[in-house]
Amino acid sequence: MRVSRSSLAWGLTLILLGVFLFAQQQGMIRVPVPAWSLLFGAAGLLFLLGALTDLSKWGLLFPGFILLGIGVVIFLSESTSASGNVIGSVFLASVALPFWVVALVRRANWWALIPAGVITTVGMMPLLAETQVRDEVVAGILFLGLGATFGLVRLATIGQGGMSWAWYPAVILGGIGLTLMVSNNPQAWPLVLIGAGVLLLVRSFLPRRRTDRPEAKG
Question: What is the CA radius of gyration of the chain?
Fold first, then answer.
C-alpha cells in the first residue's frame, strides 16, 4: 500500500496540535506563547518544509511565510507591548518574503521583484510613523523604494530584450523621492546631481540590445 507522506505529516501534525490546544485550554499545560500563535506558526513551518523538500512546489512559500507571520503577529499582540505600527510592518514583511525568495531562487522569476519591493516599501511606512521623521522625508522614502524596485527589475533582467522600460519608472519615481527629501534642504542638491550622474554612468556600462538592420539589396 502506497502511503502519502504529505497527508501523513499533515494528519499527525493536526492531531498533535489539537491535543496540545485541548491540554492548554484545560490547564493541563502552560506555555508563555499563545496557543493560536503556535498553531499558525506550526502550519506555516509545515508549508515551508514542503517547499524545501520539493523546490518545484515554490507556491507553498506563500502560505508558509504568511501563516508564520500571522503566528508572530498574534504573539506580538498578546504577549508583548509592540505597537500596531510594528505589528503591521511585521505582517507585511511576511507577505513580501515569499516574493523575495521566489525572485532570488530563479532569475526567470524577475516579476516577483515588483510585489516584493512594493510590499517591503509600504511595510516600512508604519515603522517610520514611529519616529520623528518629517512627512516629506517619509514620502520621499516611499518613492525611492518604489523606484529602487524597478531598478532591481532592470538589473535582474540584463541581457533580456524588451526590459529597458524598467529604467523609466525607476528614474521618475526615484527623482520624485529625492526631490521630496531635499525640498527643504538646498545643501543636498549637489548630492542629488552626483547621484544622477552615477546612475547615468552605471547605465552606460550596461549591455544594450543590438538590432541588426537588414541590408538594402541593390
Answer: 24
Asked whether the beta carbons of 96 and 109 are under 8 A apart, the reply is no
**What is the spatial distance between Cα 101 and Cα 51, in angstroms, rounded to a whole number?**
11
Q: Which of 149, 150, 96 is nearest to 120 (CA)?
A: 96
Q: Could you report the per-residue pLDDT of 110-135, keeping only the tens digit for each?
A: 999 999 999 999 999 988 888 877 88
Provide the residue ranges of all domains of the chain, joining segments of one domain with +. Answer: 31-116, 132-203
Give CA–CA dist 122/117, Å, rounded. Answer: 9
Cell of 72: 508572530
Q: Considering only CA atoms, which of 11, 71, 23 is closest in space to residue 45? A: 71
Residue 167, helix vs strand vs coil: helix
> Do 157 and 163 form a contact (C-beta atoms < 8 A)?
yes
pTM: 0.73
Q: Smallest Cα–Cα separation from 93: which of 75, 117, 113, 74?
A: 117
* Residue among 64, 151, 73, 68 nearest 114 (CA): 151
Give the type of residue at 100: W
Task: Reduce the DSSP state of residue 30 to 3 states and report it.
Answer: coil
Which residues neighbour 172 within 8 Å (Cβ) at sequence distance 6 or greater?
147
